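User: My instructor asked us to take a sequence, write out its structure as tokens, and then describe one feature of it. I'm not sure where to start. Here is the sequence I was given:
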Amino acid sequence: MDAIRAGRADSGFFPPIARPGPERVLHEARPFQGADDAARLSALLSRPEFQPLVMLYEALGEGCEAIARQHAGLFAARVVRITNGALFGPVLLEAFTLCAATPAADGPHPGVRRLGDGFLAFFGLFVKRLARDAKAGIFQREGFEGPITHLWTNPEETHNGRQHVLRVQFRRGGALAYKPRPASGESLFLAEPARRTPRSFFDWVNGLPPASGEVRLPTLRVLRGRGRDGAAYSWQDWIERPAQWGTLRSTSRLKLQACQLSPPQAARFWHRAGALTATCFAVGASDLLGSNLVVGVRRGQREPLPHLVDLEVFFCPVRRLPETGLISDSARRGDHHIGFEWRAWWCTTGGPLLCFFPGRGGALQLHPRRQAWARDEARSVVADTEGNVGYAAYLLPFLRGMFDVWTKLLMERERVADFLTRAARRHSVRVLVKPSDAYGAAQEQMMLSSQRQVPASVSRGRVRFSDEEREQLARFDVPYFFRRADGGPLLMMDAPPASPAFRPVGPQQFVDALEAPAPHILSGEQLGLMNLGVALRDAVDAIAQDLRHRVQEAPEWGVRLALEEDRRKGAVSFDWPETGKRLTFSWNRRTVRLSDAPLEAAPAPRSGERARRARPTA
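Assistant: Let's start with the prediction itself. The structure tokens for your sequence are:
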């Protein structure tokens, strides 16, 4: 309260003071500051229903500082103090929400205690692993030097016993992401070469000779932990905001910022993004929406790339490109916060469940949030300096990237299948039994009502929860299941402070699930040219309504596109000089066809249309 009076407090401990913004979003009106706000919050916290929260402040502060004292020199001063909202804000805000929803007559909500115990167990395990790996030298070998100067807790969903993703800032060397979960897609696919570790798939593909054009897939530094629980967590490069950053939209009170590139930079970016998209389709990667893909740079890099930072779901039986989560379908149904957003939306996913709303005379009234929450930055949005957002203005480079990586994989199909089959034996894959919004509905019901039991079902009984799902929901986790990437029983992980044992689970009700591993992915069957044609059609359909010209060509990329007036039929041609051929994929809503012609043959003209030559951007 003293910090609030002085105007120095972190606002993350309490629901924000909200006001309406553009496009029916809510955004923070102002921070808590000054004597009046301090008096209001003090009066609120003195009420009986908030006493568990006050006790939690003390328990977390004392407990986490005691854990840190056991490892002198590991953390800089004030990093682990309860006043650090970046570290403690998410769990304290959840506890505040539970207290606010509980009538005083019902007594303390047991969930507040569970939240506190869960955070202490999570933090204790994190510090144990951090100290052990620091002693083993894995950070120092990569140029990271302590102490830890900043910790940030990801406020999004927790798994496996209230375990959060953390951003861990070192005194020198930059920051790493701490990922406490068993799915190891980043190690399998993204890891850059390191001593005593097998090559990742992306790094291996980058080393293959080009088949139709140069492509390079983005890699990360992934550090595996030491000790017997090393398979249950990892450390990864934290992808920072690029220097190419600008304001895409603004009002008198809000700004929305994102990556902003010159046209030549944007063309290169979208060619690389196309290669990444096609590769994800080839390996059955899914759930790559929201914050699971970010655009940015690794430390020491200058040009931004699309980075997969949560590759947990792969080897899925994807048949259409939107199933990856990277693009929308042609009707743009469902969540519009896909991997590559086509518009700079004001809204974000998630947000606070409760908000304070200004009332008469300066009073603040606490109510559930019923509108989308605003964002001030969009890490998966890419715009150019001419006002274009997404890949519609750079469709031909995007499609060329898809073609170039697919031909590379196709030419090495047997080796690709052998690589994936062997690598799958060493890794685990997450299995999404139900979509996240089904679990989110149950969690919101638990947080905003005085009900103290986990609901048995949601969606009017259509979505039922198993014993294992209800066990995880009871500790306010999003249920998490996984298995070996080459197959086997469905597993879950014990919560800390127990050892991270993996145990099989009983039968589950699968809802809209893409269950891994899919045999046709591991065998390389996915890599047929007709599947590339399906993916190309999906990529065009996703942004067809945003195209300014139905017929385009880019000689520098060797690509030509032609769409019918209804944009439901089309064709795209690729020059393939290495084979002396021009391949043409044509489609309608039901079928995809492939034809080839000698490269010297000119593309057939379309009646009444002149091809618009895309501006050179390579």
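For the description part of your assignment, you could build on this observation: Residues 433-513 form one domain. Try explaining in your own words what that tells you about the chain.
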